[in-house]
Structure formats: structure tokens, C-alpha cells
Amino acid sequence: MLKATKISDPQVYQIVADELDRQIHNIEMIASESTAPTEVLELSGCVFTNKTEEGYPGKRFQAGSQQADRLEILAWKRAKEVFGAEHVNIQPYSGSTANYCVYNAILKPNDTVLSMRLDQGGHLTHGSTANFLHDIYNYVFYGVDKNTELIDYVDLEKKAREHNPKLIIAGASSYPRLIDYERISKIAKDVGAYFMVDMAHIAGLVATNLIPSPVEHADFVSSSTTKTFCGPRSGIILCKKEHAKKIDKSVFPGTLGSMHLNTMAAKTFSLGYLKTDEFKNIMKQVLINAKTLAKELTSRGFRIVSGGTDNHIVLVDLRPKNLNGQQFEKALEYVGITVNKNMIPFDTEKPSITSGVRIGLTAVSQRGLKEKEIVRIADIMNKVALNPENIDNLDACKNEARELISKFPLYPQGYFED
Ligand SMILES: Cc1ncc(COP(=O)(O)O)c(C=O)c1O
Fold this sequence. Notes:
418 residues; alpha/beta; Aspartate Aminotransferase, domain 2; Aspartate Aminotransferase, domain 1; 2 domains; 7-stranded mixed β-sheet; 4-stranded antiparallel β-sheet; 15 helices; 15 strands; binds pyridoxal-5'-phosphate
């Protein structure tokens, strides 16, 4: 890959080469990341980049659409099969834009939306004050119970009855537990609200039936195709048949422009890959590795939010270690373990500092790391936490992390090679 760029633009080539080097030598544990298979990288840069295409198969606004139509129809077929969906729209550019398309399909300005608070697990696009949506719709938020750190369904129901939202959103960025979709769906029906699930983080685990699917319970399901989906940087919407027209109209021409056909080709590959035994085995290991990390960190004196995990995320409370998220993220980055600082429920620190870190197990599981290696990672993390400012300590941890990850190549078949 990048043979031409290497010759014509060595500066850009070098930046990519350095990023590859970083990924090869670091233990990547950002929960929203995964490693794109080589096919996804190839297809993301394929000749479909050259084609402008708007509309839907059979109703295009441009000539020369034969291949685009074949591709989109194949993607529909695969997506419906793998997620058991009645209708699919494959055109959104990302998880965020998929959400915007759903909102645009069913909401009018000032409509009320009930969603999960950002600082207790929700996402910016669910109405955070930092997002433009906050000024368009009227948001009411639910969160987690202070003791269990699980979604407070009683409060959610109370708020739904009090505010009569037009839409209830479930799904999160940093919630390590399963969500009771059936319960929220019943609440939504009772108050006459639409129900949308944003499964951006957990789509790969849903596709492999390792955790419950929201598809039968929700009117709309949106997702990124990165994260546990392990595909290209893109998005997808699934919905009930009765909403198909509204969603398609909202995606195009309502919200987006021409399709990113190159990314759609990669997404179509991924939709096939989700069904393979190879992918299912990786997702199984993701769950085992996440549980292992939660257990091992607990035994080393960290506190795990909600006491454990049911998905790929381990949310760690660093207060028992007298550390904040910013300090720990920075020390781990030096050591070669990449995580992100993250608010924990009822955090008293600012979002730029935080009391926690969010750790994801997808990328390391794709690379082949199993329980034995996860125990070693927990051990390195603990050594870092015990003495995060001591350079000798950090250098020793860095050597250990490098040695560990060196046995698990990022792209075993090579990246720059033919
Ligand atoms: C729950 C949730 N929804 C949507 C998004 C946005 O996805 P994207 O980065 O594909 O726009 C994220 C990103 O982390 C997320 O966690």
C-alpha cells in the first residue's frame, strides 16, 4: 500500500508510516477503536472514490450507476441478514451522521427527546450541551443509579411519563453493561414515543449474537461501522419497514450528499465478515478479555464502575489509586498503552481531567491477545499507577509492554508490502 504516495509525496507518506509504527508498537485500548482488516483498507481506497452517486438503486441522479446499484443492493442484503433488520440504509457517513438522519426523519424543532446523560455514559449526538442539537430539540436526560451504576430505569420511566418525549434514545459510549431494550421499548410505547438505539459501540457483539440485539425492540437502530464492527469509518441505520420511506428520504436528500461509495464497498465487505466464524471467535475473546481485565484490575486495587463488564468496555475509577484520568492516560501513553480519560458516574472532576479511564478490548483481541496477556497488561497498568511520575518505573513498564505486543503483529501479512 502507498507505493505511489511514497514517491510523489514523501511527507504525507512518512506521517502514515509513523502512525503505522505507533500502532505496531503500542497496545491500543481505546474502546471506540478496532483494527480494520486489510480488505477494508483496500476497499476504502478503491476506484469507487471517483464516482458521484446520489439517490437509491433504480432512482439515481447520475448515469453510470450499474455497479453502485449492485453494491448497495448487496450491502442491504447482508445487513438485513446479519442484524435481522426489516429495512436498512447504508449511506450514512458515520455513527454521528446516522443519528442526525434519524432525528431529521422524525423530529421537529423543540420536540422533546429523552436520552442518557453524556457524563454517565451517553454520547455527544444524544443532545449534549456541547452539540448543536441541544439548541434544536428539547432534551431531558436519564442516567445511572448512584449505588449500582446501572441505568436507573425507574427514573427513566418517571421522566418519560412527565415529559412525554417524541423520542427515547438508548445506547452509550461508556456504559459497560447490557441495556434492557424491551423495558425501554415498553415505556416508549406507553408514552407514544419513538424508540431509537444507538449501538455504535456494541454492533460487532450484537451481530455475532453474543449480547442481546436491540433490533426487534427499537423503531430505529443506528451504528458506526468502526468500534466492535471492525469496519471502515462509516455508519448505518436499521429500522422497521413502516419507517423505511421516512428514513431514506431523511438520509438523501434530507441530510447527506453523495454517497461515499468507496467506504460503502468496505462496509459491504465488513457486513459479510461479521458473519464469519473468525469474527465470532474474536468477539468471544473480546468478552473474555474484558471480564479478565476487570477482574485483574479489581484484584490490584482499582475500582471498576458497576463492578464489572458485559461488553468490550472496562470503565475504571482511579480514585482508590489517588490518580485522575488525565494523569493515568498520560503515563500509560508514555508506556505504550493507549487508553482515554473518561468521566465516571457522578464524577467531581472536569471532563478535561476526569476520575477514570475507559479501556476497550477489541483491538488487542483482534491481534490475538488472550487471558494470559491481559493479566500482564493489568500488571503493567498497576505498576504504572503505583509510581506514575518515576521515569525508571515508566521505562521498565514500556519495555515490558513493547516486548508483550511484539509477539502479536498488527498486520501479519504486512501493510506496505505488495
Ligand atoms: C454511542 C455512540 N454513538 C455515536 C458515536 C459517533 O460515531 P462516529 O464517530 O462514527 O461518528 C459514538 C462515537 O464514539 C458513540 O460512542
